[in-house]
Write a structure and sequence with these properties.
By secondary structure, the chain is an alpha/beta fold. Helices cover about 25% and strands about 20% of the residues. It has helices at about 45-60, 80-95, 110-115, 120, 140-145, 180-200, 315-325, 350-360, 380-385, 395-405, 415-430, and strands at about 25-30, 35, 40, 65-70, 100-105, 125-130, 145-150, 155-160, 205-210, 245-250, 255, 260-265, 280-290, 290-300, 305-310, 340-345, 365-375. A 6-stranded mixed sheet has the order 6-5-4-1-13-14.
Length: about 425
């Protein structure tokens, strides 16, 4: 029962509403349930994370959970990913009956599919916002957009403006301004005004977003710069200064934005690309009181599966490093570390993959990626001899120039002999 003001007896002086208690929120994003890393499924890693998150919600007595987009890795997630998501929501409700959950769609999600079970999820204390909802007159639907977050006594302590990933069709039409950045700015201004109108004293204003912010540090292998399908980045001033906290999703590296510590990407809970190995993954715990952010803490997510990366200057160096790898033979197969091998190739090595696989045969590791780093001069063939007429070059000249472009060492005699034999065969058949 909310702690509201009331008359204790006829004729008594009205008792003012009590101030809400502090409210604790955990902010997370970019789960990408259903993700596969170079063909290897991540279901067990996600299961470990979701179990860990349930424990943290209970340990920190969280009042609310915000998932800022990319719940799933694709718009048509596999049944196993859907099962994980709904099982998590059900278990969260059982373990924390008071928990309020806000889920917004990301660019990887289907907003309509995410929202489809909303009538059922509402009974579990879950608000799902898949897209920008408007009324018949085109105004934003405040009832769906603004989510009240309550403290342990039922008193509203914060209002969350739940903004999902924005597509071009969500933005208001503008004639004389940038329809993208300024359209997003206008939409957030309108949404913030609605949230502000619902605020009462001592309530905190929270915003969500799933977007690419200007100056953000991203993982090149697993993230895209997004905004209506283009490369525009958003400035941090689209978020009102009065917002006590802005829960963002899309970038997998946890970070604050634009020097504003209350505007944050939580980051992804597991590495979604091999280049995400160096940095830790987290969720963010935030506490609000008297309408403002009073405490925040990063809760580091333990990594269930390791990533090993070898960067060698030659194939022989790579093979030696692989032979020296220290691996835990007692790990179950779904916990074997992922392996990336990058090798500099001063000369062609056609059987390199077979050599690598032979060294790793029977060992508890999963080879995800074998890539080569060419050591030649690079550039286009025409740049190799800018003053020459390329039509005067013989096939062997072209071969040698292409080889030098890619490799610092000259071709082996047997490779050159094989090329000459191929040219002779072609000329005989001409």
């Amino acid at each position: 029962m909310p702690r509201t003001g009331r008359l204790a007896y006829p004729g008594a002086v009205p008792v003012p509403p009590l101030r809400p208690l502090p409210v604790r929120l955990i902010h997370t994003a970019d789960w990408h349930l259903g993700h596969a890393l170079h063909g290897f499924g991540r279901e067990q890693e996600h299961a470990r994370f979701l179990d860990w998150l349930l424990d943290r919600l209970e340990e920190h007595r969280a009042d609310a959970l915000v998932v800022a987009g990319d719940v799933f890795d694709g718009q048509n997630p596999p049944v196993s990913a859907l099962t994980q998501f709904y099982r998590f929501l059900a278990q969260a409700r059982l373990r924390l009956p008071h928990l309020q959950t806000v889920v917004v769609a990301g660019n990887h999600d289907s907003g309509t599919r995410l929202e489809a079970p909303s009538p059922l999820l509402a009974e579990l204390g879950v608000r799902v916002v898949g897209g920008v909802a408007r009324g018949a007159d085109g105004t934003l639907d405040a009832a769906r957009l603004v989510v009240p977050l309550r403290d342990r006594t039922g008193e509203v302590a914060a209002r969350c403006v739940a903004m999902p990933y924005l597509r071009m069709g969500d933005l208001p039409p503008l004639e004389h301004e940038d329809p993208l950045v300024e359209g997003v700015r206008r939409l957030y201004a309108d949404a913030t005004a609605i949230g502000r109108a619902h605020l009462r004293p001592a309530e905190a204003l929270l915003l969500t977003g799933h977007c690419y912010m200007r100056g953000g540090s991203l993982s090149e292998l697993s993230e895209r710069k997004i905004l209506g399908g283009n490369l525009h980045a958003l400035p941090v001033d689209i978020f009102a200064e009065e917002a006590a906290y802005v829960a963002l999703g899309h970038l997998h590296r946890p970070q604050a934005v634009g020097g504003r510590e209350q505007v944050r990407y939580s980051g992804s809970p597991i590495p979604l690309a091999l280049d995400e190995e160096p940095y830790p993954h987290q969720v963010m715990l935030a506490e609000f009181a008297a309408g403002r952010l009073v405490e925040r803490e990063a809760l580091w997510v333990p990594r269930a599966v390791g990533i090993r990366r070898i960067n060698a200057d030659s194939p022989d160096e790579a093979l030696a490093a692989l032979a020296r790898l220290e691996l835990d033979a007692g790990l179950p197969r779904d916990a074997w570390p992922y392996l990336e091998v990058t090798v500099a190739l001063p000369a062609p090595r056609p059987g390199l993959r077979e050599e690598v696989e032979q060294v790793l045969a029977g060992r508890p590791v999963r080879l995800c990626k074998l890539s080569v780093r060419l050591t030649g001069a690079g550039g286009a063939l025409a740049e190799a001899d800018a003053g020459a007429d390329l039509t005067d070059l013989s096939p062997e000249d072209v071969f040698l120039k292409l080889h030098a472009r890619d490799h610092e060492e000259p071709p082996r005699p047997d490779l050159l002999a094989a090329f000459r034999a191929l040219v002779e065969r072609v000329e005989e058949q001409a």
